[in-house]
Design goal:
Length: 221
């Protein structure tokens, strides 16, 4: 009996679907997913942005759907997962981040590392750590990369807390505000989440276009 239940779990929870994750695990799942996405290199594929926004939607008052979350719990779980994850990633980077990134086989992971390095070079430590929170994949690799590059621990902690709170609280409250102001917003949950995912892909797309433009201009000159 227990074996059949365990075998059914992977089918019941879709790690790439924010709604499925929240239905199965609630606020605790938010903390675990954000910790993995921001602290462990294997979590780069997890849906951080859409998870936070959807969680905010599910906290809105007056909902009659099967899942309803408490806003204080969601805010606390989101902040805890994101902040502890970033510090863990930084610690991993200090211990062996260069080796982990060098031996990683994921193309997306290496592209994210390249963009993270570019953020450091272009904006410096403070801005790069804050901005990385809003760029998928980059927010996964920047924390261990910061540790591997010996970014001062106090500076990293200060700016990752600022960026982490702005990212988590901002997206959760945005979802909550939409859910509170639009009646029966559950009917539009899938297209809304899809829109959030698309918007989250805009920063890396702009970076790619900017890099290509710079490369073309360099070739011409």
């Amino acid at each position: 009996m227990a074996e059949s239940v365990l075998a059914a779990l992977p089918m019941a929870v879709n790690l790439l679907d924010a709604g499925s994750l929240l239905s199965a695990s609630g606020a605790l799942g938010i903390a675990v997913v954000l910790f993995a996405e921001t602290g462990l290199l294997v979590g780069f594929f997890l849906p951080g942005d859409s998870l936070l926004f959807t969680a905010g939607l599910l906290c809105a008052p007056g909902r009659d759907g099967p899942v309803h979350l408490a806003l204080p719990q969601v805010l606390l779980a989101s902040a805890a997962g994101a902040l502890l994850g970033a510090q863990t990633g930084y610690w991993i980077g200090r211990r062996g981040g260069r080796a982990l990134l060098a031996h990683g086989r994921s193309r997306r992971l290496h592209e994210g590392a390249a963009r993270a390095r570019e953020l450091f070079e272009r904006y410096g430590h403070a801005k790069a750590i804050v901005l990385a929170r809003f760029v998928p994949v980059v927010r996964t690799v920047l924390n261990p990369l910061a540790g591997a590059l010996d970014v001062p621990a106090r500076a990293f902690a200060c700016w990752q807390i600022a960026g982490g709170l702005f990212w988590t609280v901002g997206l959760v409250l945005a979802g909550y505000a939409l859910g509170a102001s639009v009646p029966h917003v559950d009917r539009y949950l899938l297209p809304i989440v899809a829109l959030v995912v698309v918007v989250s892909l805009v920063p890396p797309l702009l970076e790619v276009l900017r890099a290509r433009r710079t490369s073309v201009e360099g070739t011409r000159s």
